[in-house]
Amino acid sequence: MKFLFVCVENAGRSKMAEAFALGMGLDATSAGTMPSAQVNPEVVRAMEEVGVPISEAKPRLMTMEMIDEADVVVTMGCSVEEVCPRPMLSKMQKKLIDWNLEDPKGKPVEKVREIRDEIRKKVSELRSYVA
Predict the structure, then answer these.
(1) Which of 5, 55, 83, 122 could serve as 14's disulfide partner, Cβ 3.0–4.6 Å?
(2) In angstroms, what CA-CA distances link 65 with 8, 16, 29, 31, 87?
(3) Confidence bin at 128 (pLDDT 50/70/90)
(4) What is the separation of C-alpha 68 from the centre of its chain, rounded to a whole number of angstroms?
(5) What is the reported pTM?
(6) What is the domain partition of the chain in residue ranges?
(7) Cross-strand partners of 28
(8) First vs last C-alpha separation in the chain
(9) Which is nearest to 22 in space by CA: 125, 123, 128?
(10) Which CATH superfamily is 2-125 part of?
(11) pLDDT at residue 84, rounded to an integer
(12) Is the pLDDT of residue 89 over 90?
């Protein structure tokens, strides 16, 4: 089963989800509707604190091929409604889950840690889809 984690910039929440999923042995990737130039530095720092290096990760643009290949698409929650992936993805014949997570962009590392820990918990729960 392949998971696709999607948010707007693919620089925070979806990157953390992808990294945790891969670390748990899940088939996963992530992308954004308007990818940032780089992964959020506070996200990189928070992930390194738990031994998950993502400093080399690059935000990617979501493509139809990625959507077609995914069995489950997980959106992170939207803060930028004009480019939110959920309305577009909800029209597809895919299993769609929205986690409605706070965006770590512009947040201090303490808040990013809270978001990171919530993502790790949610990714762990996804393993039941594979079992």
Answers:
(1) 5
(2) 17, 21, 12, 11, 18
(3) confident
(4) 17
(5) 0.90
(6) 2-125
(7) 3
(8) 10
(9) 123
(10) Response regulator (3.40.50.2300)
(11) 61
(12) no
